[in-house]
């Protein structure tokens, strides 16, 4: 495992600590962000655009909403406090039960309160960008599978 100096919050100085991933490092039990390594709106939009038959709209107060055949599969919005990108996605019931309890994730406002299995990633504490991309792909798949069979066939996803 690669080692590099990171800020040691407990000791008030720098310390050699192992790098947990290319995006995250832990020290004294706290997450340290490495600048510039978290999904921003440009990388979020580029990833969603790479999925077949998607469309993009900006709605609901500036949220970047991605759809497949007119059905939402991802919503990117901002936390007004620190302008962090929050990403909301549909997931399986099992993933929902697991993710809703994890730091940096929560049941999606409005959607989850209506019984829908949608999660909002609010920070990278548990889910890095690679995992987020996997969940976005799964959200796309779940939404596409919910489309009428004739639409799935037209889009070549059935």
Describe this structure in words.
With 158 residues, the protein is an alpha+beta fold. It has 2 domains: 3-33, no CATH class; 41-155, Aspartate Aminotransferase, domain 1 (Alpha-Beta Complex), CATH 3.90.1150.30. The protein is 26% helix and 34% strand. It has 4 helices and 10 strands. The chain has helices spanning 41-50, 93-99, 129-145, 149-155; strands at 3-8, 13-18, 24-27, 30-33, 54-59, 63-68, 71-78, 85-90, 105-107, 118-121. The strands form 3 sheets. The chain has a 6-stranded antiparallel sheet with strand order 5-6-7-8-10-9, covered by helices on one side. Strand 1 and strand 2 form a beta hairpin. The longest helix has 17 residues, at 129-145. It starts with a strand and ends with a helix.
Strand content: 25-35%
Structural class: alpha+beta
Strand order of the largest sheet: 5-6-7-8-10-9
Please report the distance between the alpha carbons of the first and last residues: 43 Å
Principal-axis shape = globular
- Total helices: the number is 4
Topology pattern, helix = H, strand = E: EEEEHEEEEHEEHH
Looking at the structure, the CATH topology of the largest domain is Aspartate Aminotransferase, domain 1
Average pLDDT, to the nearest integer?
77
**Unreliable stretches covering 5 or more consecutive residues:** 1-36
What's the level 1 CATH class of the largest domain? Answer: Alpha Beta
Concise description?
The protein is of the alpha+beta class and 158 residues long. Helix content is 26%, strand content 34%.
Which keywords apply here?
single chain, 158 residues, alpha+beta, Aspartate Aminotransferase, domain 1, 2 domains, two-stranded antiparallel ribbon, 4 helices, 26% helix
